[in-house]
DNA sequence: CTGAAAGCGCTTACAG
DNA sequence: CTGAAAGCGCTTACAG
């Protein structure tokens, strides 16, 4: 069964397609008689007309589609972002196309390519390591784009940035005031700048301090996080850790790290204090309430859509960066 | 800067748009000279040509877009499904558009409408209560659609179904064999059939059994789950629960229920045994490993895409239902 | 108040 | 081996 078009409406209503188009789009200025209007709406209703946005897009050069590229949509952090973006996008009449890059620059590039072909009006992307060229290509084409969660050094694309370095530095200082014997930072072996920023913030805080404290840094790859962390934590914590602090620098690392503590029956905060980056539902099931750095996800997504919409509508070639901060939510996991 | 089109390529290469189209689409049958081909590819490269899929769609009646409607993309269950679908879709050349219905029939209808307008080739939907009409409309238009996770009674639309009733019945029986004094089923106050099926399975198992066991059913609304469950569990479990079993019938309910247990320091499984429906990362942080019903998510999404692709390509008006089962993963939370 | 016509960027049957 | 032309479903400046 062929879909009804405005041609069909025009034929049945005995008017021109132009008139149908004007009426359905409720354009002012063109004065169409009330009867004609009524007739057209009736016909549209009875033949079950659904406008074809793709045809409109071809004329308008606007698809009302937005592309979102994250590392992995099944990661709670990104699915929460996606949800916020969805709501914001819908308010402005946009629909979201979503893709996961798996931290793979080639896949990232393919998604960009695919979304361009689908003629999305703009993209919100969490760039992966090595995606400089893909982003620059978009910039050169003047394609509206906003980075989120991450940024690439030396690529001047508009984006929402969280001051990870400062947050890490500040929160580490808070740990340092507590007179722990040992502090362990759990991070990634990565080239992602926003994660390096966290490590640098941690390092800066440590070297500024004149405390006599043992410092250990654990770095894990992206695969097999749980196993790697469990092994490395076993070494770093030893059999019977005391007066130790653990800085878990992402939600994934937090879940992996905490699962080690729970398995090995290590008391939080009595023996090991914990500070995590990012929130996760999972904290609810841990015996001790977890202290964490809360990123301003809602603000991030609000600003991202705004910044993107601006570029789309103004054709303006901004390179604006919006820098946001995070809050430290102190709970019982720090003694 | 205007985007390059095949017209531009044709002009620069000194050939017709038809030829360009044939070459870029690598159509066989039309024999184009090697030089012409080479020239066209070169020009396309230098002017940075990106094909416009929307224009192609208009001719083809195929957008290669698939709509996915879930209750909430930020729910781990659905984001996992989304991720699986994304991967499967990509393999077949489709891109996913995602929307969250919030269990709201109006919003569901709006998303369907929106996706139709975007001319998605097909939809994968988790229908909400009261969405019968929306689904029937799609069916009448012969729109390719597959339901997932849920189904609506009396609406004969193709879908992937999990035999929730049987699973609940079977797993409840396993609990009943353990000679608990009391068993508490935590479910939703809902009209969603797949959730009612779970309750009915539970009920059936209880009434078949001739055990003398106290049974309590807790039903919570969709909002404020955590608070509601905590209150009701406080009543149902009392101060000092012993030899009790808890059936938590979804991942959200599991997190809410387990968080009550952890807060109140109730020993699992010594005092309260726990069986949950669905998996969640959060289990990793609970002191006792949780036994749960694992739904075959991968199989669900594989079959969903297959079933949808079939409808899209064959124009076949199937009403096929694929019924899958779940596995009970027994861990230490059941004594 | 309404319509004829051009055009958005493609594809494809047909002709040569 | 290649091109002219129609057409997908819309929008919109222009004419009347």
From TrEMBL, chains A, B:
Which PROSITE patterns does this chain map to?
A: HTH_LACI_1, HTH_LACI_2
Species the sequence originates in: Epilithonimonas hispanica
The protein's UniProt keywords, in alphabetical order, are: DNA-binding, Transcription, Transcription regulation
Instruction: Report any Pfam family annotated for this entry.
Output: LacI
| Domain HTH lacI-type, residue spans | 4-60
Example of a GO MF term: transcription cis-regulatory region binding
Name of this protein: LacI family transcriptional regulator
Q: Which InterPro entries does this UniProt record tie to the protein?
A: HTH_LacI, LacI/GalR-like_sensor, Lambda_DNA-bd_dom_sf, Peripla_BP_I
Superkingdom classification of source: Bacteria
């Amino acid at each position: 069964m062929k879909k009804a078009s405005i041609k069909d409406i025009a034929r049945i209503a005995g008017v021109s397609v132009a008139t149908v188009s004007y009426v359905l789009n409720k354009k002012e200025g063109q004065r169409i008689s009330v009867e004609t209007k009524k007739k057209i709406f009736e016909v549209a209703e009875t033949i079950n007309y659904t406008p074809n946005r793709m045809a409109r897009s071809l004329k308008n050069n606007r698809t009302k589609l937005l592309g979102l590229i994250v590392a992995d949509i099944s990661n709670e952090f990104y699915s929460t972002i996606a949800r916020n973006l969805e709501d914001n996008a819908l308010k402005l009449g946009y629909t979201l196309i979503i893709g996961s890059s798996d931290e793979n620059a080639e896949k990232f590039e393919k998604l960009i390519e695919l979304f361009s072909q689908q003629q999305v009006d703009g993209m919100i992307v969490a760039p992966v390591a090595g995606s400089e060229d893909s982003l620059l290509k978009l910039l050169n084409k003047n394609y509206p784009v906003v980075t989120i969660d991450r940024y690439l050094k030396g690529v001047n694309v508009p984006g929402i940035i969280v001051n990870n370095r400062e947050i890490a530095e500040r929160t580490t200082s808070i740990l340092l005031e507590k007179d722990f014997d040992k502090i362990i930072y759990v991070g990634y072996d990565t080239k992602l700048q926003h994660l390096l920023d966290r490590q640098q913030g941690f390092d800066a805080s440590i070297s500024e301090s004149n405390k006599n404290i043992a410092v250990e840094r654990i770095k894990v790859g992206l695969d097999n996080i749980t196993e790697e962390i469990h092994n490395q934590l076993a070494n770093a914590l030893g059999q019977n850790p005391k007066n130790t602090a653990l800085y878990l620098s992402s939600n994934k690392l937090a879940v992996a790290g905490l699962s080690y503590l729970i398995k090995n029956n290590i008391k939080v905060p009595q023996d090991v204090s914990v500070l995590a980056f990012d929130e996760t539902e999972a904290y609810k099931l841990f015996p001790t309430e977890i202290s964490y750095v809360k990123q301003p996800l809602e603000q991030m997504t609000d600003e991202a859509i705004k910044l993107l919409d601006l570029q789309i509508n103004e054709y303006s070639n901004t390179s604006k960066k919006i820098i946001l901060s995070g809050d430290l939510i102190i709970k019982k996991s720090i003694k």
